[in-house]
Amino acid sequence: MAVLLPVLALAKPTIVKPTIKSTTSFAIIVDNATYQAIRPSIEAYRTAIEKDGLATYIVADNWTSPDLVKAQLMQLAKGKMPIEGAVFLGDIPVVMSRDAQHMASAFKGDQDQDWKEYSAGTDRFYDDFDLEWDFIKQDEDLPHFFYYSLSHRGPQKV
């Protein structure tokens, strides 16, 4: 018996390519609903960045996990105009780090306590591809929060 996958699982992100060429590029990562709601503003933002000479991608999707966002960023980083940065707009999964207190200058606490209070939101998951992370769980009350542990297998600094 064949198993049918939901159509959403097969959907690919919408990628709007830059209108200019440059040696590096920038990415605007956005969820589909936000993109549709404020598309003219996002495109105006891209135009402003490109006027400064930096090619800019717009990538829209229904992001269901941080790993999907990171995979897209890594793919853009390997392109002919590798990204040098990104901005996130709308409903993007939030990575809550565990075992990475040494990377957060203002975060101190006993992580054996409440997960929400003693985990730190981090963008290091998205911007440093050398760091290794182990998925722990998705928050039951706040489903846009995803808990990851910084693995001892990889680097321990940015």
Sequence-ordered SSE layout with sheet pairings:
Layout: H1 7-10, E1 14-16, E2 25-31, H2 32-51, E3 55-61, H3 66-77, E4 83-89, E5 94-98, E6 120-121, H4 124-127, E7 133-138, E8 145-150
Parallel strand pairs: 2-3, 2-4, 5-8
Antiparallel strand pairs: 1-3, 5-6, 7-8
SSE ordering: HEEHEHEEEHEE
Name the shape in a single word.
globular
Radius of gyration: 17 Å
Strand order of the largest sheet: 1-3-2-4
- Give the biggest sheet: 4 strands, mixed
Count of DSSP helices?
Answer: 4
Global mean pLDDT: 85
Structural class: alpha/beta
Helix content: 25-40%
Q: Quick one: how many beta strands? A: 8
Taking the alpha carbons of the first and last residues, their distance comes to 48 Å
Q: Would you identify the regions where 5 or more consecutive residues have pLDDT less than 50? A: 1-9
Strand content: 25-35%
Structure, explained:
There is one protein chain. The protein is α/β, with parallel strands linked by helices and 158 residues long. The protein contains 4 helices and 8 strands, in the order αββαβαβββαββ. The strands form 2 sheets. Strands 1-3-2-4 form a 4-stranded mixed β-sheet, with helices on both faces. Strands 6-5-8-7 form a 4-stranded mixed β-sheet, with no helix packed on it. The longest helix is centred in the first third of the chain and has 20 residues, at 32-51. The radius of gyration is 17 Å and the shape is globular. It starts with 6 loop residues before the first helix and ends in an 8-residue tail after the last strand. The model is unreliable at 1-9 (pLDDT under 50).
